Each structure stands twice: as C-alpha cells, then as structure tokens.
Amino acid sequence: MSLDPAFVPILPRTAGATPEGHLTIGGCDAVDLAREFGTPLYVFDEVELREGCREWLGEFRSRHDETTVTYAAKAYLGRALARLMAEEGLGLDVASGGELAIACAAEFPMERVYFHGNNKSAQELWEGLAAGVGHVVIDNFHEAVLLNDAAGDLKRRQPVLLRVSPNIDPHTHEYITTGALDSKFGIAIATGQAEEAVLSLMASPGLELVGLHAHIGSQIFETEPHQQACRTVLEFAARMKERHGFTLQVLSAGGGFAIQYLRDAPAPARAVYAEAIVSAVKEGCTAHGLPLPRLTVEPGRSLAGRAGVALYGVGARKEIPGVRTYVTVDGGMADNIRPALYGAAYEALVANRLEGGTSERVTIAGKYCESGDVLIRDADLPRLWAGDILAIPGAGAYCLSMASNYNGSLKPAVLFVKDGQARLVRRRETYDDLMRCDV
Q: Distance between CA 206 and CA 204 in Å, rounded?
C-alpha cells in the first residue's frame, strides 16, 4: 500500500508503508521498532539528514561558493548526529559548554565550530578557547571582556563575530523572535551600541573581529525578513568600514528556516531561502561597495525536523459527551514541550493502521500532571485503541533538546534508521539515571 500523499511532505523522504499497513521509516517497520525499543521512541531517517545537508550546501554554494553551512546544535545534538554533520562537511553552532562537550566527544573539527550564547560564562569561554573553536560569536560587552582576558592569558588571538540586533520583525511567535530591538540577544544597531561594540572589539588585543552575525528568529516562512536583516547588517558594515576601517570578512545570516508541520502549511523550498539571502547579500555589497564576504547560514530545525518521527503507545481514553474525547499516549510534554510552550501544532497518523480512514476527532494528551500537556488538539484520526502506535512526524527538532524528567519520566531512546537497519544512538534512560547525580 502507499502513504496518504498529504503526509508525504511532512514525513522523512524514505517513509513508506508495508502491505499490512504499517508505517516504515528508512526501510524499518515502525511497529517493529516500537516493540523492540519501546515507546516513546524517536526515529531519525539518516538519508533525510544526509540529503538535507547536501541540499543546503548545494543550494547556497551554487549561488555563492564561499558559503559555510553550520548545523544549529540547539535543535538536537548527540554524538552520532555531530559525527554525521562532520562527515557531510557542515560546521556546528554550539550554544553552551555542554553542546561543546558533545562536539568534542564526537571529535568534530573544532575549526568548524561557532560558539554562540547570550551569557557564556568565563568557564565556557575558557573551554571554547582550549578546544580551539573556530569562531566565538560575541553577544554582549561583558563576555567580550571575559574572552579577551582569557585569550590574553592563553597568548592567542581569537577570531570573533559580533552578534547584532537589526530590529527586524520575522512574523513568527514572540517566543522564537530573536532579532527585534526588545530582545535578550545581540547588540542593537539602532541605539548605537553595536558601533560601540565594534570599536571595543577592534581595540581588544586578544580578539580579531572578522564578521557580523544576525539571527532574527525561528520557523520563519517568509524570505523578506531575512533579506531585510542582510540589508541592515551590510549597511551597518559599510558605515563601520567608512568610520573605523572595519573589514567584513564573514557575514552570518543566521537560520530560522521553516519546515512543514501541517499538511496545509507548506514551507518554502531550500532553494527559495538560498536565492533570497544570496541575492540580498550580493545586492547589498554592490550598493555599498563592499567585497563579498564569506557567508554563513545556520539551519537547525530545517535539517533535523523532518528527519525525526516520534512514536508513542496509545493508552487511556476519556470521553466527555458533547465536549471532547481525550486519548492519552505514553509521552507528552516531558519529551516534547513545544505545544505547551508556544502552541506548536502537529499532525499524527496511526503507524499500525495507515488505511484506517478518519472516523473521529480527538485530542492527543500526554501522561504528565499538567492540564497543558496536550500534543495535538482536535486531531482527525481513525478510532484509536489502547496498544495502537501513534506516529508524530516533524519531531526531530526542539523536542529531545528540550526534554525533561518531569514526573520522574525517562528520556526516550533515539534511533538512526537506514536501508532497513536500525541503530540505537541513545539508549532510554533508567531509574538509576534519574538518581545518578543525587548525593
């Protein structure tokens, strides 16, 4: 049998169906995976991950060959994923000492690492310098002083990018907007503080200011905000060149590229984002008489999101006549807090009965002690029974990376699947793991 065509853009590209009507991912039967590894279970299609890397590189480098594509680790990072990104030639954005430690453990090439974060500690900055990260992205005046001191002690000069706030509205949820004037991220251009930061960094003996960085938000469906941000930053770079002799060698246009979570909400193709950003950069450089810098882009969700599918076991059912029917699964906000945090929307399919039709409208609730623990509200699905396996596509980004142990829950296992083979890359936590740090 074949998949519902409406789900094809949401599921990983290798998704299919068995003759019995089971969902397959990477040639593996999702029902068999759930039985063998338990649920909740996160399954990543390795082909989707690798092809996504190649497409991002190809789309940008075909338009501007001096482009670096760096994976935004905050979307999800484990040693296996870091190794895959390294093998595909990508860089890596890390935003904490923990993400840096994972990159080091995976032996990721440190010269391809960009160290982000709006409050990097002195210890984290030392760790970044000691590891040999290629670039540190300066987010505020405080960490610039800390990093300069550390670089001086180590007798080295660290290349840095300055994260600026271009005051651009990306038309996304306020919780995932990062480039506005009223934001904790970056140093504002409009207030004159970004110019102060440029002067300070250029005068810091332990730091080499090589570029500018701007990231305006996440899950951005429009291309115009990206173009506006590039224009604003390039105009600023031109002023800094004229006034202070600053040379823009690297321009990071950030990420925030949207993916499709719902059947009726398609996202722009990767080529569309690439064309919009590269054309804006070329036009801006021409307008201001600047040489083309090396361009850096930071896809995270748009690499990992579609590649991951979450599998849940269906349990209890609660029918409130005339009001709502709740169907509860064995996961929820502990492994995917996005719906509770900012109203993220998903769709689902029954992995063990793909041709079950649509017979009822239900709300898929999690098992945790919060009324807001709802994964999908008003989902049209076949009649669900205890023991069914529910699959939620688009679960590869910002689910596992924000997972918790709420209610003493165990973080789920993670699989990579390819060519009919499943590889366990993160085991399910145990009760002993919950108490490992207790003293």
A: 6
